[in-house]
Specification:
Blueprint lengths: L1 H34 L24 H28 L4 H7 L2 H36 L13 H11 L4 H5 L6 H11 L32 H7 L4 H12 L1 H14 L9 E5 L22 H15 L3 E5 L2 H8 L18 E4 L1 H11 L2 H4 L4 E4 L6 H4 L1 H6 L16 E3 L6 E2 L12 H8 L16 H8 L6
Parallel strand pairs: 1-2, 1-3, 3-4, 4-5, 5-6
Helix pairs in contact: 1-2, 1-4, 2-4, 5-7, 9-11, 12-13
């Protein structure tokens, strides 16, 4: 009799728990459908009445949450079915093992809490989805006549944005929104997006302008230049040998410029022909009679800029160049990470090619800041790319479309003149002065440069008129 009463009590508890579980499941589904605003669209049912097939705007994340709800409800249903089968048998000891009221209630409470947490998470996903949909709707390619290349650039980005890691560095992720943000804020092919907070973009505060002061001490420059290469050691030796002349010139210049205000320039000197990437063919030949004219010229340029009081940065490697300019990581397809940090850049053709490779569109934007040390100059026909191509002029060093005055040469024709420092010699006898007035000097780093100048020597030997 006692066993029968216990079994009856357990059976009634089981029925109440079953009704409670079913109610929890039904209430959870109704709550989710209501909270989702009717966005659940149930379709064909399969194995379980709780299996839900929906399309939610939250994407993969929301579908995963719904799958989790479905799995939990299926577990509840299986437990109810198991208990229902046991209720029709007389194995009361198995019923006690599988359907302990305390354990079952704890499980039901845990499931109810999980369902509530999932509902909150689903609401967050849907709110985020609505916000994203609002932005996506504003990411259509604008048709602005002031930006005619915007559409074609977006098409290019869709196909090639993974070709260089620098695009991902700037936040490109393959979406049209990221393309438009990049093309309007990093590059300049698309108009600014009205929904972007442009006021939050960092603006570079201009530092107070410093005045350039004439320097007579070359010590800081010699220390900055270093001596890691034989070519650099040669340049240091030349500067040190002419220190006295530079000091005298600095004092005279200071007296002349007392009433002038000169702003200090930020100057990058990138000696491209000394970089390992260009081969550095000069350093091994310094002590073997190799050409020294370029190194003489660069040594004097560095000394002159230092004496004039400008802020110098010296680069003799591509890595140093990238660091000074602020080149983003990648293969050089993207612009610099910020404004150009220099007022002037002195380089050569090797350095110009390296800058083109690593600066991307920034080279075209900042080309006017560049000065090219070109020993013998470049004819305008070879400088203008379209003209040279049309007339079949071929060269490894031209086609840069620079202003002629940006080429610094030893010969003042179409370019700016930049020579080298001449060493003064004290003349104590009249005979030396007479000899110098009647003498001619010809320079050439190789015999082939002077072998066809016999006509010049015949002119030199000819006596002067009236003598």
């Amino acid at each position: 009799m006692c066993a029968t009463n216990i079994f009856t009590l357990l059976f009634l508890s089981f029925l109440m728990c079953r009704i409670f579980v079913a109610g929890i499941g039904f209430f959870s589904v109704c709550f989710l459908v209501t909270s989702l605003g009717g966005q659940l669209s149930p379709k064909r049912l399969r194995d379980s009445p709780f299996t839900i097939h929906t399309e939610v705007q939250g994407g993969l994340e929301s579908r995963g949450v719904l799958r989790k709800i479905s799995d939990m409800l299926e577990i509840i249903l299986k437990r109810i079915d198991t208990l229902a089968k046991l209720s029709n048998t007389s194995e009361s000891h198995r019923l006690e093992e599988l359907s302990s009221p305390v354990g079952l209630m704890e499980r039901i409470q845990a499931i109810a809490q999980n369902v509530s947490d999932i509902a909150v998470r689903m609401d967050q996903i849907l709110q985020k989805s609505k916000s994203t949909d609002g932005i996506v709707g504003q990411c259509e390619v604008p048709k602005d006549p002031r930006y005619p290349d915007c559409a074609s650039k977006v098409d290019w980005m869709r196909a090639r944005w993974t070709s260089d890691p620098c695009y991902a560095f700037y936040g490109v992720d393959g979406s049209d929104c990221s393309f438009l943000i990049y093309l309007s804020e990093v590059e300049w092919f698309c108009p600014p997006l009205p929904w972007r907070n442009h006021s939050s973009q960092s603006t570079v505060s201009s530092a107070p302008e410093r005045q350039a002061m004439v320097r007579s001490d070359l010590g800081p420059l010699l220390e900055q230049l270093g001596s890691g290469k034989e070519s650099l050691s040669f340049m240091r030796r030349r500067m040190r040998r002419l220190t006295t002349q530079w000091a005298v010139a600095a004092r005279r210049l200071h007296e002349h410029l007392l009433t002038f205000q000169r702003p200090q320039k930020r100057v990058l000197v990138h000696v491209g022909f000394l970089t390992e990437e260009s081969g550095d063919v000069f350093s091994p030949k310094v002590l073997k009679g190799g050409p020294l004219g370029e190194m003489v010229q660069w040594a004097d340029i560095l000394a002159a800029l230092h004496v004039l009081g400008h802020n110098l940065k010296i680069s003799v490697s591509v890595k140093e160049l990238q660091g000074f300019l602020g080149v983003p990581p990648g293969r050089g397809s993207c612009p610099l990470r910020g404004p150009l940090p220099f007022d002037l850049i002195y380089t050569d053709y090797h350095g110009l090619q390296q800058m083109k490779q690593h600066m991307g569109l920034s080279l075209k934007k900042h080309k006017c800041h560049i000065r090219v040390i070109d020993t013998f100059g470049t004819e305008p026909a070879y400088n203008h790319e379209e003209y040279a191509t049309l007339h079949g002029y071929r060269t490894n060093w031209g086609y840069w479309n620079l202003n002629g005055r940006q080429y610094m040469t030893m010969f003042r024709n179409d370019h700016a003149l930049i020579g080298s420092l001449t060493q003064h010699t004290l003349l104590t006898t009249p005979s030396w002065g007479l000899w110098l007035r009647n003498s001619t000097r010809q320079r050439g780093s190789a015999f082939k440069m002077t072998k066809s100048t016999t006509w010049l020597w015949s002119m030199v030997k000819r006596p002067a008129c009236g003598r």
